[in-house]
Amino acid sequence: MAVLRKRYLAPAQYRQAQARQGLHGENGFDWGWSFRRGHSKIIAVHTNTVRGMSGSFLREIRPEALRQLRQARKVTVLTGAGMSAESGVPTFRDAQKGLWANYRPEDLATPAAFLARPDFVWRWYESRRRQLQRLQPNAGHQALAAWQLKNPKMTLITQNVDDLHERAGSTGVIHVHGTLNPVKCFDCGASYQLPPCSDEAENAAPDQEAEVPRCSRCKGLLRPGVVWFGEALPAAALHKAEQAATDCDLMLVVGTSGQVYPIASLPGMAHSAQVPVWIINPNASVLDDQASVLVRGTAAQVLPALFDRVS
Ligand code: BJW
Ligand code: ZN
């Protein structure tokens, strides 16, 4: 079997390398082996993602890899922003578009930014909440929810602050970075469920005046129910996530860049506990070293096809 020596290539480069090394996939799905520290790594490239076409593509995935997934009784799934990208939610590290194009999320998602300009940061979150209201779960969210029905021991951990997993039907979702709604009081922590957002919220310009609602108990400012940089993650959620990372037969990591800690260390914890880690991402990430199976494709394309093959 040919060995694809250079592993972490962008899909187009990967295909060129494959052609050079004589690896040819069929049905739009190419795969190769790579060897490192004595372990084999399966790389699966969903070439239809590259070509922007749809179609079946998992016929070529190695049967031993599919068997691993089929036989797993306890699967832990970790999702990141890429999970919701095909629903229209911008990923965190994509350049922002529209009215907020000149601002970096990293500069807005901090307690310091909120304290300096609460109304400004509140408007950004309201515009995102409004945007989310008119977006729908994608085929990847739906595939995970359907798969959970058949595999009740699945644990779903998400870094996303949207509710698209729940709207697709997933239950018991562990939101390690909180949620856009409910919001909470900055001072006393009291929780408040916001009513649906107005259209104006989405179209509010960054410099437009807006009043941040206040807590009815202590009059403190309300803030989004998310975890900002420098803040501790919800202890119970983090504890459950860490346990689920090692107490499982397989970890599926979907659409995260693996740049934000402590969650970025979960795939490494699983890997150290000899749990096979599968990564689904159209792009390379710093987590790739921890993967036993890499699928270069998008969440909405890969997950339905993958679960279809193992059901
Ligand atoms: C697709 C796709 C498709 C695209 N299909 N895939 C150790 C080392 C260094 C630093 C630290 C450390 N430990 C802690 C830190 C500091 C900090 C940190 O990690 N900084 C790094 C940036 C270096 N961490 C923290 O501050 C955390 N708190 C903490 O550790 O507290 C300690 C403490 C203890 C006790 C008391 C007090 C403090 C908190 C982190 C909170 C993160 N919050 C955010 C914002 C949430 C609110 C909001 O949304 O506004 O969470 S940051 C942002 O990043 C967001 C995300 O959940 C998170 C992760 O991003 P994600 O999901 O990976 O998205 P992207 O955009 O990065 O990647 C998208 C991926 O999808 C890409 O790979 C694409 O290729 C892929 N993709 N289309 C599949 N269709
Ligand atoms: Zn309060």
Structural notes for this entry:
This protein is of the alpha/beta class. It is 35% helix and 15% strand. The protein contains 13 helices and 11 strands. It has helices at 11-21, 47-51, 63-71, 81-85, 105-108, 111-116, 118-133, 139-150, 164-168, 199-203, 235-246, 266-272, 299-310, and strands at residues 29-36, 39-46, 75-79, 155-158, 174-175, 183-185, 191-192, 222-223, 250-254, 277-280, 293-296. It has an 8-stranded mixed beta sheet, sandwiched between helices. It is elongated. Bound molecules: ligand BJW and zinc ion (ZN).
Strand order of the largest sheet: 1-2-11-10-9-3-4-5
Ligands (ions, cofactors included): ligand BJW, zinc ion
Shape type? elongated
Stretches where pLDDT is under 50 for at least 5 consecutive residues are 1-11, 17-40, 46-57
Would you report the number of β strands?
Answer: 11
Sheet with the most strands, sense and barrel status: 8 strands, mixed
Please tell me the overall pLDDT.
83
Q: What's the N-to-C terminus distance?
A: 29 Å
Strand fraction equals: 15-25%
Q: How many helices?
A: 13
| Coarse structural class | alpha/beta
Set out the fold topology.
Layout: H1 11-21, E1 29-36, E2 39-46, H2 47-51, H3 63-71, E3 75-79, H4 81-85, H5 105-108, H6 111-116, H7 118-133, H8 139-150, E4 155-158, H9 164-168, E5 174-175, E6 183-185, E7 191-192, H10 199-203, E8 222-223, H11 235-246, E9 250-254, H12 266-272, E10 277-280, E11 293-296, H13 299-310
Parallel strand pairs: 2-11, 3-4, 3-9, 4-5, 9-10, 10-11
Antiparallel strand pairs: 1-2, 6-7, 6-8
Helix pairs in contact: 8-13, 11-12
The chain binds ligand BJW and zinc ion.
